[in-house]
Amino acid sequence: MSYICLVLSNRAGLIATTALAPIAWGTTYITTSQYLPPGAPMLTALLRALPAGLILLAITRTLPRGEWWWKAAVLGTLNVGAFFPLLFIGAYRLPGGVAATVGAVQPLIVVALSHVLLGERATWIKVTSGLAGVVGVALLVLTPAARLDTWGVVAAVTGAVLMASGVTLTKAWGPSVPPLTLTAWQLTAGGIVLLPIAALEGLPHAPLTLTNIAGYLWLGIPGTVVAYSLWFRGIGRLDASVASFLSLSTAVTAAVIGWIALGESLTALQILGGVLALVAIAAGGIKDKPTQSAHVPAKTPVFAGKVPTQAGGEARG
């Protein structure tokens, strides 16, 4: 009994620490709109990713080897190099709530991809929770005053698809690599992808202020170095779909911050939406009951052929 309690406690603690990442990301919208220079989404993405990746590389002192060079490039592009620009385009062109609503489809995408590629069961609880999460976030943040921008919506949808793909592939490839090392590789690779894009955009018209610098530091250290390390650690130890449901807390955080810091009002319907989103997070985190013997996997994952045992090696599955 004590062992079972310890396992549940460890899992609850892992879920709680992993949830700190999307909670930190919930501050991205207010930071972008209130503290960063306008019209510089690519520069913002670059300054968030590359310095954080180089800091973690200096800490871990580990470079990819073998197939991890291209795997790190793929993951870094999906989770950072392509996702960050789309995130900031959405944040600049859409109200935070609208961008968050569109991003709320990510858990459903991860459930589908994880079922096909990882063998994780797409249970009715997960599917229903995913739909409830979208509805809850929509009720929470979509108001009659919300404006829609076509390119902003396209960016937000594409970003959700890319991050869902990145989460799934990170789960498939990454658990054998230490979280800090995996985070360093992805942020650095993503930052390199962002370099030419940011160069084409150019620098802001006005010099950076202390407020701008503070905003970049907040996004870079707590919002990237710490948050992504916790996020990839969680993906490595939890089901990909379970981790993805935690991303709904980004929208809840953004709404609460808007209410507290910007004086935005919350109606009874919005509060109901927030509660529904939290219920979806909790339901999505319910551990599946095994349907077969523990020695027989329910389904062979598509990526089960080679499993790297460390940064430079691999073992046959």
How would you sum up this structure, described in words?
This protein has 317 residues and is mostly helical. It has one domain (22-287). The chain has helices at 2-25, 28-35, 41-60, 68-81, 83-93, 96-103, 106-117, 124-141, 150-173, 179-201, 210-237, 240-246, 249-261, 268-284; strands at residues 306-310, 313-316. A hairpin with a 2-residue loop joins strand 1 and strand 2 (313-316). It is globular. It starts with a helix and ends with a strand.
Summed up:
This protein has 317 residues and is mainly α. 72% of the residues lie in helices and 3% in strands. The chain is globular, with a radius of gyration of 19 Å.
Please describe the structure with a list of short key phrases separated by commas or semicolons.
317 residues, mainly alpha, two-stranded antiparallel sheet, globular, disordered N terminus, disordered C terminus
Report the biggest beta sheet as strand number plus sense, adding barrel if it closes. 2 strands, antiparallel
SSE string, helices as H and strands as E: HHHHHHHHHHHHHHEE
Kindly, what is the distance between the CA atoms of the first and last residues, rounded to a whole number of angstroms? Answer: 33 Å
What's the helix count?
A: 14
Report low-confidence residues grouped into runs of 5 or more: 1-8, 291-300, 304-317
Shape: globular
Query: Largest sheet, order of strands side by side?
Result: 1-2
> What structural category do the secondary elements indicate?
mainly alpha
Care to count the β-strands?
2
> How many domains, in number, for the residues?
1
How much β-strand is present in the residues? Answer: under 5%
Rounded to an integer in angstroms, the radius of gyration calculated over CA atoms is 19 Å
Mean pLDDT: 82
